[in-house]
Amino acid sequence: MPDFYDALETRAPETREREQFSQLPDLIARAMSASGWAEQLTGIDPKFVTSRAALAGLPVLRKSDLKERQQGKPPLGGYAVTAPGRLKRLLMSPGPIFEPEDWWNSARALFAAGFRPGDIVHNAFAYHLTPGGFILEAGAHALGCTVIPGGVGNTEQQVEAIAHLKPAGYTGTPDFLKILLDAAEKTGKDVSSIKRGLVSGAALPSSLRAHLADRGVAVLQSYATAELGVIAYETPALEGMVVNETVIVEIVRPGTGDPVAEGEVGEVVVTSFNADYPMIRFATGDLSAALAGCSPCGRTNMRIKGWMGRADQTTKVKGMFVHPGQIAEIAKRHPEIGRVRLCVTREAEQDVMTLAAECAACPSGLEDAVAASLQSVTKLKGRVTLVAPGTLPNDGKIIADERSIG
Predict the structure, then answer these.
(1) Are 124 and 157 in contact (CB under 8 A)?
(2) Among the residues of 8-51, which ranges form H helices?
(3) How would residue 1 be classed by pLDDT, with cut points 50, 70 and 90?
(4) Which residues of the chain does CATH 3.30.300.30 include?
(5) Using omega within 30 degrees of 0 as the cis cutoff, is the peptide bond preceding 131 cis?
(6) Is omega for the bond preceding 335 within 30 degrees of 0, making it cis?
(7) If one looks up domain 7-304 in CATH, what number appears?
(8) What gap in Å lies between CA 100 and CA 146, rounded to an integer?
(9) What backbone phi and psi angles, to 5 degrees, belong to 146?
(10) 226-249 mean pLDDT
(11) Which pTM does this prediction carry?
């Protein structure tokens, strides 16, 4: 049984980088044939975008912006290169798809989780208007598997189907897999054919992973979105998630498009090589961090820690919205400071902002200067505290709202 889906997974990292960035100018040029991307990338010459540094100079597209533009120019905001009328489906999340190709590139993740051609797969992701069910089904078909389209709910009926059709594996949320196993145990149905699972869409605590393993099901996770498909996936090594071969992942400081150092927690920004619905620097709103080195499983692509929370930490202070991008702007104005965090608390029934900033060598007057920038950028007064480097946690949090609710 082969260990890898294809030779791309074991390319030398420098070879992958060279090959992906040699393809990037054509991808961007194709994207710019669509009106939405032409507007988004105004002034960009695709032929010069051949490195990570050049890619980092392009604007990010945030999910909120995509939604707004789709509302203004339905159905897809002018971001689909292929005309919407030529797509097989239009879904709510959003996500046009083609069949039977692996449009969302999930086959690689399924393979890493142990699925093989000829397997029967019970797919418990939702099909109605949302893309989850189709994302995994398309990949299973591309891998040569047969799919039971279980969808969500109807637990007893799904247990009946599993007991009768004997699928080798499960795709869906991890908690629903436990629900199915519990229901089968209660009713005396034999669902022991399920030996493996690829789960997503919900947290997989180590306790739940161990519980499922004790019941005979080895599960791995994938990280996917409707716009991008599978971004990264676990392998049997269980050391982070390996980035898919069909995307370029950057980790950037929340609220900006600026890449952070390896190991620093930041927002996941993805460029996808999708000829029909390309995404150039799409900001997912999710936090993660890049891991050093290659996976022990032998796959050589970049690894990320997995989902570590949400990057959009916008909060309201004294009736004014304060955004992560504003706090990042303050840091840019003062190169002497490093990692920053704005804490919002309550004192004497009033909102209070305190900006903590790491600083190795703090010149006289820096604290007052940063406070002036805080007021200038946010239009709100706040305190500034300078702290030693390494004091603030590496969790990607730029705004910490510590006010009690209720």
Answers:
(1) no
(2) 13-31, 35-40
(3) very low
(4) 315-401
(5) no
(6) no
(7) 3.40.50.12780
(8) 13
(9) -95, 140
(10) 96
(11) 0.86
The position carrying tokens 């199915």 is 180
Residue 406 confidence (pLDDT): 43
Rounded Cα gap, residues 295 and 3, in angstroms:
13
Q: What is the pLDDT of residues 365-380, one digit of tens each?
A: 999 999 999 999 999 9
Radius of gyration (C-alpha) of the chain in whole angstroms: 23
Q: Which of 130, 235, 215, 116 is nearest to 172 (CA)?
A: 130
> Would you call 112 helix, strand, or coil by DSSP?
helix
Buried b (16+ CB within 10 A) or exposed e, 159-194: bebbbeeebbbbbbbbebbebbbebbeeeebebeeb
Whether the per-residue pLDDT at 99 is higher than 70: the answer is: no
Element (H, E) at 170: strand 169-172
Cα 268 from chain centroid (whole Å): 6
Domain 315-401 is found in CATH 3.40.50.620:
no
Helix (H) or strand (E) holding 190: none
Residue 272, pLDDT above cutoff 90? yes
Token duo for residue 191: 């669902």
Task: Indicate where the chain has its CATH 3.40.50.12780 domain(s).
Answer: 7-304
Mean of pLDDT values over 271-293: 95
User: Residue type for 394, please?
Assistant: N
